[in-house]
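Methods: example folding runs. The two proteins below were folded one after another, and each record is reproduced exactly as written to the output file, sequence line first and structure-token line second.
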Amino acid sequence: MGKLIKETDTKDRDAILAAIGLGKQFATALVARLLAFARDESNTRPTSRVKILGTEGVSVQLASCCHPIPGDSICGYMRKGQGMTVHRKDCHHVARGRETEPERWTSIGWKDENNQQALFTVPVDLVVTQERAALASIATELARFGSSIIGLAVEDGKRSDESPTLHLTIQIRNRAHLKEVLGNLSQLPTVKSVYRLLDGDRKRDYSV
């Protein structure tokens, strides 16, 4: 709870409850954050358990710009003294980096024995009919398929006729799991469209 108070920049537990009552905070999202804090760090930071072909003995981390997950085509960027950063092959940093520093980039792949219970963070956008009604059904559906929300922001439509967008960060096991989760979310009556965010302003629909 102390971490949540600090993250939400509130005074204490009562202030958080008041913010929920006033509609300034989403209870579902705050519960998701509390659960994330309560998990062992090895479960919330799966990069330490990522197995990449040809990287034995090398420190590996996943790029925050494109959020690669098992099943994605990937490349590795080696930085002296800092190990390897794994990017999606279609990340805009890859094309640019291979032009300027080709010697630092290499094609890599996921090992088949990656822990199937490890969870990876993936940013997604959902255009919804009404954010409060949608969020409850989305959280329920995610839990049903072994996923959860660990980050949330709401963007209201700029015009009165525009639908709000939920910017979520969810936990996913691999590409197949992501496709299953987003496909089911797209069927909810409160959800108009679902996108996986790639890098920059790029996004892809739920067919991933």
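Second run, written to the same file directly after the first:
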Amino acid sequence: MAAGGSATEIAPKRRRGKSALFVVGCGWAGMAPHWLDPSIRLIPSITVALLLGGYIIRTVLAAVLRSAKQPSQATESNLSQGLETWPSVDVVVAARDEQAVIGRLVERMALVRYPEGLLKLWVVDDGSTDRTPEVLADLQDRFPFLRLLKRAPDAGGGKSGALNEVLQQLQARWMLVLDADADLQGDTLERLIPYAEAGRWSAVQLRKAEVNASVNWLTKLQAMEMAFDAVIQQGRLATAGVAELRGNGQLLRLDALHSCGGFNEATVTDDLDLSFRLLIDQQPIGVLWNPPVQEEAVLGLAALWRQRQRWAEGGLQRFFDYGPQLFFGRLKASQKLDLLCFFLLQYALPMVAMADLAGALITATLPTIWPLSVVVFLLSGISIVAGCTRSSEGPALPAMNPLSLALGIVYLAHWFVVIPWTSVRMALLPKRLVWAKTLHLGEEMLPEDKLSLE
């Protein structure tokens, strides 16, 4: 590829051994308090709850205050008028078996406003076995801005491999990565590009909005989760912490992407991996609440389980691969603290909680981690409310009421199953790199009585 120091050369670094150390360390942290004197058994959990609870409160408050300062559309209009020249943009989609949605994507991209001649849409047919190639061929005759690349089914590298292949041909200043089910508002680029240029960001992540949130209870909960995630992301950034890419709707400046080696083909989550390599390379990532990128939430529990396992594995992989560079490198102290707190909350807490439960069963004592878990879930509920009640464009966010909020908090507990399961699997089984495709249905929605049976 065209970058100096190819990301394809970034190989897994003893991930299995590091996974085992992570599992053992969390297991000890969760079980050890059960052998302490009952009078001090809860002190470790209460202490950590106060520290991490303070971090969450500070993050959410920063996000709420930041939302009050978000630019209005009038301000964004003035900002866009301040651009002397509009930079070129390449929109890139890696598509495999996407006949249900790829036509809709191309047609809607034709409605996105941007100066003529400066916008191209690149679609990489990544070894499709359905009618995706035929659909794309018909679309190319109708839309001059569409460029097609075809990869063999056994080309390797998954989505990262497809993105690296097209990266060699791109010459624009900005690259916008979309999933095949994505949809943008007509003015998205007119607002996103000035925001990125004015902020001197190397990358910007759009808020993800679930277009099918009203289909069933699971899609509604995912919509709540995406709003929650965007609030946390903006709060982390506002407190001099770290923001991360989320794959769909990520805008990348090409020189920054080349500087950190392109996309890593040795990971199952190209976006999370790239977030850390940009961070190490001192390339800042911004987050934009409005306008959002619209996408489909998965419809059933089986699909959610597969998707979340991949997210969990990729999330852990990046910490195992880049941990020393992150925590002992040249990052700011505030960024290191943010990463540590995030790691403890997202990955260590579920593992410790599961070990705590095992320790309680073995010793016939009460669980000890509950003060931390209660604080985290309560503050997560506050974050959900902050996200879902915030002024937003795109699909309507779920209305907040006690039942919805309670379901949202309970729903987040699925990470307390996904993280331990994935961690133990990574520690015990040989490494694997599987890019699991998420099914996109487009207009071919299933009948409502079948939506929860996947």
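Comment on the second run: The two ends are 39 Å apart (CA to CA).
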